[in-house]
UniProtKB/TrEMBL annotation:
This is ABC transporter permease. SUPFAM superfamilies: MetI-like. It comes from Pararhizobium mangrovi. It is a multi-pass membrane protein. The chain crosses the membrane at residues 104-124, 136-159, 179-201, 237-262, 282-308. One of its GO terms (molecular function) is dipeptide transmembrane transporter activity. Its main location: membrane. It comes from the Bacteria. PANTHER family: DIPEPTIDE TRANSPORT SYSTEM PERMEASE PROTEIN DPPB-RELATED. The keyword Transmembrane helix applies. Keywords: Cell membrane, Membrane, Transmembrane, Transmembrane helix, Transport. CDD domains: TM_PBP2. It is found in: Cell membrane.
Length: 315
């Protein structure tokens, strides 16, 4: 219970800090939201600009705007978009589906491929193929997902010019087309996470293989394969599982970037449009909710780790 209260307090502090930074930095972006909204119109007068600023509450001191916004957020009201007039939560909900799908598929690919890859990396230790596998994992760890996405688009547009790989098809409309459009961006997004998880599993698996209980099992005649799968892997997966939860938050943020490469109408498109239009309420709400997802995932991971390893809750 003490650990739970401490984690909740940390979560609240992070959210308050992010809300303050997001609110402040957004207003440092050059350009006036009202001027951009009204555009180069001959009928735009200083009086009309002042009237619009007053209607949007932008004529108030910045600190008053912040406290007014935070007070509404606490009550579940994130405001309305300056451009569309629709509630911010409605705009975010409309675009969150593709981002959530992309994140889930990328996480699934990373986990499913990282486990056999990490086991293989551990089993080839000291053999001829180890340098090649290690070098490949480093490349996968360092390659930018957006750059890999561009390479994949160029490759498939050359090999299969008639194949549609850009855009997004709702799952309810065509499930196969939905998965087909998301596989390439999901793979590009998951590769660094895959490499990271595989290297982590390799390290923890090699450490577990050095433990006394594994040596005892080997002395009793258990094969090397059996020692890995029946004894060492179970303990090696504990830090792996907790890292998966942390990586999920990073994937959610990374999806916003990869969406621009594959023209997926998710939160990335929404946030970039809000930046270019200086749509303060929409941008603030989107950043705050993305951060909330990230910290909640980490919060759940902390609780999960305490369940897996009860010693953590007593620290």
């Amino acid at each position: 219970m003490k650990m739970l209260r401490a984690r909740l307090f940390d979560l609240a502090i992070v959210l308050v800090g992010v809300s303050l930074l997001a609110f402040s930095f957004i207003r440092m972006i050059p350009g006036d939201a009202v001027a951009i909204m009204l555009g180069a119109n001959a009928e735009v007068t200083p009086e009309r600009i002042a009237a619009v600023r007053h209607r949007l509450g932008l004529d108030q001191p910045v600190y008053e705007q912040y406290f007014h916004w935070v007070g509404n957020v606490v009550q579940g009201d994130f405001g309305a978009s300056i451009w569309t007039g629709k509630p911010v939560l409605h705009e975010i909900a409309t675009h969150a589906g593709p981002t959530a799908e992309l994140t889930v598929i990328a996480l699934f690919l990373a986990v499913v491929l990282a486990v056999p890859t990490g086991i293989l990396m551990a089993r080839v230790r000291g053999r001829a193929g180890e340098p090649v596998i290690q070098a490949t994992s480093v490349v996968g760890l360092t390659i930018p997902p957006f750059w890999l996405g561009i390479l994949l688009i160029l490759l498939f547009s050359t090999l299969a010019p008639n194949l549609s790989i850009l855009g997004y098809v709702p799952f309810s409309q065509d499930p196969l087309a939905n998965i087909g459009h998301l596989l390439l961006p999901a793979f590009a997004l998951s590769l660094p996470i895959l490499a990271n998880l595989a290297r982590l599993l390799r390290s923890t698996l090699l450490e577990a293989l050095q433990q006394d209980y594994v040596r005892t099992a080997r002395a009793k005649g258990v094969s090397a394969r059996g020692a890995v799968y029946r004894h060492a892997l179970r303990n090696a997966l504990i830090p792996f599982v907790t890292s998966v939860g942390i990586m999920a938050g990073y994937l959610f943020g990374g999806a916003i970037v990869i969406e621009q490469v594959f023209t997926i109408p998710g939160l990335g498109q929404l946030i970039l449009s809000a930046i270019s239009q200086r749509d303060y309420p929409l941008l603030q709400g989107a950043i705050l909710l993305v951060t909330l997802v990230f910290v909640l995932v980490n919060f759940v991971v902390d609780l999960l780790y305490a369940v897996i390893d009860p010693r953590v809750s007593h620290r």
